[in-house]
Fold this protein.
Amino acid sequence: MIIICPVYGDVYPQIISSLICQTYQNWELHLIHDGKSDGFIKAICDYHLDKRVHWYEEPTHTGNYGHAIRAKYLQLLKGKGDYVIISNIDNYYMPVFLEKAIATFKDNPNDVATYCAQIVHNYTGFQVMNCRLKRGYIDCGQVMLKFEEASSVGWNSLDHSADWFFFEDVAKKYGVNSF
């Protein structure tokens, strides 16, 4: 289970502690800074002393909400795990999130992706948001995909809504019922 997480600036990485608290422990977090960093987040990664947390810095800043990083690392990390989540540094996962998502695949082996029915998101002022497979109602961090299928589709957009376009591409290739 691989989590790809672009980073820019000095946002506290909530994602680390929420992953460490997961009931499912076989995961790797790949934090990739978009350009050179000042070392703040790397110091936090080092502080946790968890070998599942990996830190990278891209040589130059690309911008575009980290979408170029998502595209690159979706291909670079292919084959490292059966499942992938493309997340953000400020996402927080309830302790059973990974366990429940993986169990969904075990119960539905033909599915390509699974996602939460609800999330709390800043789009809604941190209120509960009901989710569905529609632009504006789903966020990349709430979706777990089979890695092989996700990388075969690729992350093809740098637009603000690139996560939606990615899911749309997955649905076009594998069908809406694969979610």
The mean pLDDT is 92. Strands lie at 2-7, 28-33, 53-57, 83-86, 113-115, 118-121, 127-130, 143-146. The first helix runs from residue 14 to 20. DSSP finds six helices and eight strands in the chain.
